[in-house]
Amino acid sequence: MRNMQLASAFFLALCLTACGEKTYADGTYQGRSADYVSEEGDEAGNGYGIVNLTISGGQITACEYKTYELDGTLKGEDYGKENGEIKNKDFFNKAQKARAACDNYAQQLVAKQNVKDVDAVSGATVNYREFQEAVDDALKQAAQK
């Protein structure tokens, strides 16, 4: 029985080594998500995400994630305002929560090293999907075979 367990452990280790994890070349890479357009016809929330990753020693050492309106305007401190004013406080708060989630996602990625391990923030699901797409795009550029 013990020999069977050792053989199984050896086989598993061999498979994991043969399958291999991807390694990444050191450098800075930018990835972009696809455009998000609400199916409800509402323009609020439409846009895309851009991630900038720094890889050193094969590890993600820095990540910056920002989201943009479809016209290229950064979703910043005024995101959720209308003509510079908060006309709908609930919408503004939701928009700012989604904006804050960008930093959260970036920090989690550096800590966890795998986009699949980054936890979604409630109320920022679209940003989460855009983040995953942008990271995948950047890592494809950094992948070594």
Q: Tell me the span between the first and last alpha carbons.
A: 38 Å
Outline the biggest β-sheet.
3 strands, antiparallel
* DSSP strand content: 15-25%
Q: Characterize the overall form.
A: elongated
Count of the separate structural domains: 1
Q: Mean of residue pLDDT?
A: 85
Strand order of the largest sheet: 2-3-4
Q: Helices and strands: which structural class?
A: alpha+beta
Helix content: 40-55%
Radius of gyration: 20 Å
CATH class: Alpha Beta
CATH topology: Sufe protein. Chain: A
* H-E order: HEEEEHHE
Tell me the total number of β-strands: 5
Supply the key terms.
Sufe protein. Chain: A, two-stranded antiparallel sheet, 145 residues, alpha+beta, single chain, three-stranded antiparallel β-sheet
Give an account of the 3D structure.
The chain is an alpha+beta fold. The protein has one domain: Sufe protein. Chain: A (Alpha-Beta Complex), CATH 3.90.1010.20. Helix content is 41%, strand content 20%. Strands 2-3-4 form a 3-stranded antiparallel β-sheet. Helix 2 (89-112) runs parallel beside helix 3. The two termini are 38 Å apart. Mean pLDDT is 85; it is low at 2-20.
